[in-house]
Amino acid sequence: MGSATTICSDKTGTLTLNQMTVVEAYVGRKKITSPEDNSQFSVVVSSLLHEGIAQNTSGSVFPSKGGGDIEVSGSPTEKAILHWGIKLGMNFDVIRSESTVLKVSPFNSEKKRGGLALKRPNSEVLVHWKGAAELVLASCAGYLDSNGSRQSIENDKMFFKEAIDDMAARSLRCVAIAYRSHEMDKVPTDEEQLSQWNVPDDDLVLLAIVGIKDPCRPGVKDAVRVCTNAGVKVRMVTGDNIQTAKAIAMECGILASDADVGEHHVIEGKTFRELSEKERELVAPKISVMGRSSPNDKLLLVQALRKGGEVVAVTGDGTNDAPALHEADIGLSMGISGTEVAKESSDIIILDDNFASVVKVVRWGRSVYANIQKFIQFQLTVNVAALVINVVAAISAGDVPLNAVQLLWVNLIMDTLGALALATEPPTDHLMKRSPVGRRSDTKPDTGRLPGLVRSVGDFWEPLITNIMWRNLIVQALYQVTVLLVLNFFGKGILNLDHDSQEHANKLKNTLVFNAFVFCQIFNEFNARKPDQMNVFSGITKNRLFVGIVGATFVLQILIIEFLGHFFSTVRLNWSLWLISLVIGIIGWPLAMVGKLIPVPKTPFAKIFIKPYQRCIAARSA
């Protein structure tokens, strides 16, 4: 997740609060500014609206207990419309008991609408439809005006389209409610035939168009801005009207202004779906908002982005989102509104369904990746220095200054205590100012799922050991190797030990080399905290474990030298030699600052060194 270059996010419940309310309605050509006021339209319209809302729904209304508010269940859109119906005076249980449902055509994300056929007590058959306003409107042949009279819609279709666009531009979700009558003798009586029968969806009569407000979550705009500054592009993929999607995207900061809405920046799912595979790969990186999209459109977008080298994170909550969640590099399902299928297909579950939490995941992902790099830099410095010192000393003098027990203690500092100290570094704002690592352009994305978030290092642009890390490592290793080899070969003369016995002089010299080497690692642990920053002490008080481990290592080193000489083959040091060890270690701090002034190329060293080899191979094959 720390390497994500783009996040494809749902709108409802992730970028918005998922608290929907009907705030505007059109009944006929009349705009109802106070949607709960049913005195502005006739009893005929009111009766049909009550029936359409109560019957054509997957939600339910439960009577209040103890004088409390009425409880409404269902999807957020269903709940908003049911609440509106209750305010209009709808009696949910009575209306549902007055008619018999013949066939239900459930809402799905492909059709963007749902309907049913029902039989009234007088044997009259009515069909009710509800769904995406512009799609339902396209199937309407007429509309009921506020007086309950049927009018032809041909001359007024443009009016209704403009009304939909106006509401959508104000980030309202537009839902149309329509009905039609149907002949009883055309309804199959046989159960098998009835199950195959399609509920008629043509020649509809428009009853109302409602505008539903779902406000943006507090903090979403800031979270989107953080992602943008971090080089992570946020894309909104929603089933809403393209104008609604565009308005919400501007409200959330995904689109800065109308100037950002160039070709392909805002696109409909159908348009994207109809492109060829090559065209989708070209268009996908430009997309900021996809409206009227189906789960399959989201899957196609993810596939196109991954083929283009993006590391894709996808949010989803429905069962139909499972393929896209599975296909993405990181699948993020919603803990509150998400289905079990979506959760099973995802890598991470966002417990509060909040986009700001997705940004926290990016932040922590980058922190984990950075902490691994910090530890590797620290570990390699220790290994290189210890290896060079012992090998050079063994070859030239036949003796090693660091014995096996001492190296075991160094390994304990490096592998256990060092890892614990550096791995627990908390995320910082600096991490969100870097560009994401990204995927190699010459590597095909891995279509198989790997457990957790771990991908092969070869999948990414930047190698795990960066040029900055190599620079820091070389500077510190060269310093440590130079100083400690000088002490090893010329230590007796420097410390005036020529008059001491050979055995004591060697032990004292080796003890100083060992002590100085450990102090170098203790102080270099601070340098490893901030590989690319001058101030290595920034935020150090926030990581008490780091301070505790460094302090414990320091104390243990004193105990080893002063009291455990028999086990470590060391002798006690006087205060001047302790001071020398301390100074040798502390010099690593200013040296690291000077080293960070050395510029490094952006191209990884591995690529620079491998180019001559590649040219040689190419020349031979030619």
| pLDDT < 50 runs, ≥5 residues | 441-460
* Total E-strand runs: 18
Radius of gyration: 35 Å
Discrete helix count: 22
Describe this structure as you would to a colleague.
With about 625 residues, the protein is of the alpha/beta class. Helix content is about 45%, strand content about 15%. The chain is built from 22 helices and 18 strands. The chain has helices at about 45-55, 75-85, 90-100, 135-140, 155-170, 190-195, 220-230, 240-250, 270-275, 275-285, 295-305, 320-325, 340-345, 355-395, 405-425, 465-495, 500-530, 545-565, 565-570, 575-585, 590-595, 605-620, and strands spanning about 5-10, 20-25, 30, 60, 70-75, 100-105, 115-120, 125-130, 140-145, 150, 170-180, 205-215, 235, 265-270, 290, 310-315, 330-335, 350. Strand 2 (about 20-25) and strand 3 form a beta hairpin. The longest helix has about 45 residues, at about 355-395. Residues about 440-460 have low confidence and may be disordered. Catalyzes the hydrolysis of ATP coupled with the transport of calcium.
Outline:
The protein has 622 residues and is of the alpha/beta class. It has helices at 43-55, 76-87, 92-98, 133-138, 157-169, 191-196, 220-229, 242-252, 269-273, 277-283, 295-307, 322-327, 340-345, 355-397, 404-423, 467-494, 502-529, 544-563, 565-568, 575-586, 588-595, 605-621, and strands at residues 6-9, 21-27, 30-32, 60-62, 71-73, 100-105, 113-119, 125-132, 140-144, 150-152, 172-182, 204-213, 233-237, 266-268, 289-291, 312-316, 330-334, 348-350.
